[in-house]
Design goal:
By secondary structure, the chain is an alpha+beta fold. It has helices at residues 23-34, 47-63, 75-80, 104-115, and strands at residues 39-42, 69-72, 88-91, 94-98. Helix 2 crosses helix 4 (104-115). The N and C termini lie far apart (49 Å).
Length: 116
């Protein structure tokens, strides 16, 4: 019996980064996911973001992958991914990690899992 017409809230899928993509951000996210580099670092350009970028570049070199690494500093684009804490690593359009600086070995494992 529904009292006073209250509706149940639908569960919103969420990732570790607080991925609550809203319809108005979906177009931006899809455009960001399909364009350009397949490995992206999301962050303002601080020292931690630079450390993650260096680890990603080193991991790609170790694996012999020639992907480019794009550093996204625009907060609108970062928010479009649903990331609330930076730095974040995006591989092939999917957020793989956020809120921490990964070591090269950790990035290698993520890339191997993503690329099979």
């Amino acid at each position: 019996m529904g009292l006073f017409g209250k509706k149940k809230k639908e569960a919103v899928p969420s990732c570790c980064c607080g991925d609550d993509r809203k319809p108005e951000n979906t177009e931006k996210t899809e455009a960001a996911e399909t364009g350009g580099a397949s490995v992206k670092i999301l962050g303002s350009g601080c020292a931690k973001c630079d450390q993650l970028e260096a680890a990603a570049r080193e991991a790609l070199a170790q694996l012999g992958m020639e992907d480019t690494v794009e550093h996204v500093k625009d907060f609108a684009q970062i928010a479009a991914y649903g990331v609330m804490s930076t730095p974040a690593l995006v591989v092939d359009g999917k957020v793989a990690s956020c809120g921490k600086v990964l070591k090269t070995g950790e990035v290698v494992k993520i890339l191997q899992a993503a690329r099979g």
